[in-house]
Design a protein that fits this description.
Layout: E1 2-13, E2 16-28, E3 33-37, H1 44-51, E4 59-64, H2 74-84, E5 85-88, H3 100-105, H4 115-128, H5 144-156, E6 162-166, H6 174-191, E7 194-198, E8 215-217, E9 221-223, E10 228-232, E11 239-245
Helix pairs in contact: 4-5, 5-6
Length: about 260
Amino acid sequence: MLNVTNLSKEYPTPRGALTVLSDASFSLAPGEAAAIMGPSGSGKSSLLYVLGALEPPTSGSVTLDGQDPFQLPAPALAAFRNQSVGFVFQDHCLLPQCTVLENVLIPTLVAPGRAGDDTERARTLIDHVGLTDRIDHRPGELSGGERQRVAVARALVRAPRLLLCDEPTGNLDRASADLIVSLLLGLHQKTHPQTCASPDHQGQAPGISRRKGPVQVGQGRHLHGISQVELQHPAGQGREVVHQLNRHAQPPFQG
């Protein structure tokens, strides 16, 4: 279970603290997903960075299955990110000198495990994103959409409990973006991570369905039977909308 409680984030500036998130609260059960909506500069990326333990919150808490990563010492925090969180960024962030298979395996290099199992899972994920015939190619030999498919496979290779996608289709044409969204939906149904995705500037996001139940948001407001949660922009310049998706009932992915 992902629990976000009274989360706030500020950045120092010459004119004082800049608040980008204020008193946000929501939760996601295993297999659930949220699409975080809002205009540029409204704090979508900042929220994802805090959820993924890349940046600490100014106040409030984030816990994943009861564990607060910000209470961990630095080595344990790094291990938490590697083992529990998968990231897909707007840029694919692939290493140009490595093949598709090598790029997908990179998260496994800093963690103990069995190389044979890791390689088999990587090959299975590469097959799921439709790149088996490109497995020995390097990023320079791939299209933009193919590179982002590799990034999706890399994010899932450690079987993370939490998958975070920060505008994963922002650099792609519409056809490639639609394919990435379909892949994310399909893999989410098979692997059952808790997923938070920030759509691109055109509003491209995974398909949305209703999720019943109470969600706390903003200044303690309590909503029931909702399909979206609104996080007001602290500076009054737009809003965040978190669309909640239903948990999918497919059996867990065996990879």
